[in-house]
Amino acid sequence: MLETDARVALIRDWLARELRLPVLRIEPASSDASFRRYFRVFCDAGTYVVMDAPPGKEDVRPYLKVSQLLESLGAHVPHVHEADAQRGLLLLEDLGATLYLERLDAGDDPEPLYADALRVLAAIQVRGRQACAQLAPYDRSALAREMALMPEWFLCRHLTLAPAADETRLIDAAFEFLIAEALAQPLVFVHRDYHARNLMVVSERNPGIIDFQDALRGPVAYDLVSLLKDCYIAWPRARVVEWVSGYRELLRSQGGAAGESEQQFLRWFDLIGVQRHIKVLGIFCRLWYRDGKPGYLADLPRTLAYVTEACALYPQLAAFGAYLERHVAPGLAQANAAALAGTRA
């Protein structure tokens, strides 16, 4: 595949002719939920990673902007050694290949890993007050647009459900409540995908942070819920609450936005989590039906469980949660099985 890939040929030419980098070999490193791909470049002096972001499908300029902002805040993002924005090529520091998720799934103690991730997140939020002013706002339209993916792709497309008029009103009311709650939170620098698949285990200044190009100025609890209510790995509620409490104290000690009480901060955490996970239900299904990527379907049950569990804790979402429990959750396993059977047909 590498020998016939035009973009790989372009990368080889860029490295050799323009950067004059003596390359021994190039190997696929990873891909993500977008059109971006990553290649590991082996040289005598070490390794690099090339981001391949085809123009017309991806724009590396947001990545470069957010990378500079995060680097200025002391976060360990891949240093950009060279950039050709016009052709969508970046030569990056190689942070290795060990994801947080890999170590957590292998049974590593999560406490030191999460301690590092929470410490860095607090630093980004507290030090990033001026930096986040350079980001677009996580405003009403963005929050609503994200949640609209769930009825379209998860309910209608994946589960073949057509909500009745009263159910649509129920969904709309829940979404409006969640938008209002999100907009009431203090605003900070929001990575938007600060979770175990975007955190790398590195030997210095752990963790390495990737996939941050969609950062916005938004709710203080958003990245915290991405990390602690991760769509790819779940922890008991009691342990999560302990981590949330500890993080709030970390913010308080540094003068960050920690809310008036633990109860308020936990409410922020839970409710922005519902918004995020509603969005993710839609995105995971869209990745299959639109983009042909079935790997995220297995994470739908965990993501839906986060929504229903949080809805049960707040009276304003009780009816919406009950609707999901009665009409949505029972059909998910069958819908997943049908979709996955289609991939094998």
Number of strands: 9
What's the total helix number?
13
Gap between N and C termini, in Å? Answer: 24 Å
Order of helices and strands: HEEEHEEHHHHHEEEEHHHHHH
Q: Output mean pLDDT.
A: 95
Q: Largest sheet at a glance?
A: 5 strands, antiparallel
Classify the secondary structure makeup into a structural class. alpha+beta
Backbone CA Rg: 21 Å
Portion of residues in beta strands equals 5-15%
Estimate percent helicity: 40-55%
Instruction: Give the CA-based shape.
Output: globular
Biggest β-sheet: strands ordered side by side in the sheet: 1-2-3-5-4
Residue runs with pLDDT of under 50 for 5 or more positions:
none
Structural commentary:
This protein has 345 residues and is of the alpha+beta class. 50% of the residues lie in helices and 13% in strands. The protein has helices spanning 6-18, 61-72, 100-105, 110-127, 140-147, 149-158, 165-183, 222-228, 237-253, 262-289, 300-311, 318-328, 332-344; strands at 23-31, 37-43, 46-52, 80-84, 89-93, 187-190, 199-200, 208-209, 216-219. The strands form three sheets. The protein has a five-stranded antiparallel beta sheet, covered by helices on one side. β2 (37-43) and β3 (46-52) form a beta hairpin. α9 packs across α10, α10 packs antiparallel against α11 and α11 (300-311) packs antiparallel against α12 (318-328). It is globular, with a radius of gyration of 21 Å. The chain starts with 5 loop residues before the first helix and ends with a helix. The model has no long low-confidence stretch (mean pLDDT 95).
